[in-house]
Design brief:
This protein has 158 residues and is mainly α. It is built from five helices and no strands.
Length: 158
């Protein structure tokens, strides 16, 4: 049993990361011989939590995309409306990553921010575009038609 105590803020994080990487490397070397080596403590827990969150968010967001596309297609019953959620999600992801890059040039950004931004931008864009397209489809099927509704909205606003 070995205990390592870090003091200070900035050097502590770098030293803890280096120690955790060394322990992982030693564990991979010793595992075939039947020996296990691990680290505990707040730094190891924080790093393991961040790594698991990145894996979970990535897997769940990618795994849900075909299900969301199927639900949108079944509800809207029109293939011509399907590209809009994908285009909205791509535009939101590009915009958020461009803004994050500008922020990252000025200040330190947590390593989980890009994963969270991608997850939120894709999920919110698909959700909102589905809502808007569903409303569009309902108005299209109504007795007045889209042109009449557009004219009513235009008169109400102007």
């Amino acid at each position: 049993l070995m205990q390592v105590i870090f003091s200070g803020d900035a050097p502590r994080r770098g030293a803890a990361h280096a120690l955790l990487e060394a322990v992982r490397s030693l564990d991979e070397t010793l595992a075939p011989k039947g020996l296990a080596l691990s680290c505990t403590g707040p730094h190891a827990l924080e790093e393991a939590t961040h790594a698991q969150a990145r894996r979970d968010i990535g897997v769940h967001s990618v795994m849900f995309l075909p299900v969301a596309a199927l639900i949108i297609h079944v509800h809207l019953r029109r293939l011509s409306l399907m590209p809009l959620p994908a285009l909205c999600a791509a535009a939101a992801a590009l915009t958020s990553f461009a803004l994050e890059l500008a922020v990252a040039r000025r200040t330190a950004v947590d390593q989980n921010v890009p994963t969270l931004m991608a997850f939120l931008s894709i999920s919110l864009c698909i959700d909102w575009s589905f809502f808007l397209l569903a409303r569009f489809r309902e108005e299209e099927e109504s007795s007045l038609g889209v042109a009449t509704h557009a004219e009513l909205v235009h008169r109400a606003l102007f």
